[in-house]
């Protein structure tokens, strides 16, 4: 990946954390989530922790990336999808540790 928007993602922690103390939640790289993608899944999903269909050929990505040109995409609730084999400098992942 190339670092330094607009040529690529910035280094982790380049901006102040949000109100929850989280860094880089939107706009750096799309973040993979474990959920399978299906266009109308939320209309039939469980109310809590919907994980998407297990056999879905695509996986959900969230948060938008440095390469977006539409600010509406840069949000934690915007849901997009791609093939799990996709490799690009606009998609990454978040390392998160549980409570001690």
| SSE string, helices as H and strands as E | EEEE
Report how far apart the termini are. 32 Å
Q: Tell me, what's the shape?
A: globular
Helical region count? 0
**Strand segment tally:** 4
**What are the segments in which pLDDT stays under 50 over at least 5 consecutive residues?**
none
Question: Could you characterize the architecture of this molecule?
Answer:
The protein has 100 residues and is an all-beta fold. Helices cover 0% and strands 17% of the residues. The protein has no helices and 4 strands. It has a 4-stranded mixed β-sheet, with no helix packed on it. It starts with 29 loop residues before the first strand and ends in an 8-residue tail after the last strand. The model has no long low-confidence stretch (mean pLDDT 83).
């Amino acid at each position: 990946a190339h670092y330094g928007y607009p040529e690529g993602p910035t280094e982790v922690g380049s901006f102040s954390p949000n109100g929850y103390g989280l860094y880089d939640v939107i706009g750096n790289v799309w973040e993979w989530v474990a959920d399978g993608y299906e266009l109308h899944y939320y209309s039939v999903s469980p109310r809590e922790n919907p994980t998407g269909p297990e056999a879905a050929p695509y996986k959900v990505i969230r948060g938008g990336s440095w390469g977006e040109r539409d600010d509406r995409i840069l949000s934690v609730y915007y849901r997009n999808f791609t093939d799990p084999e996709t490799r690009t400098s606009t998609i990454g992942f978040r390392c998160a540790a549980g409570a001690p």
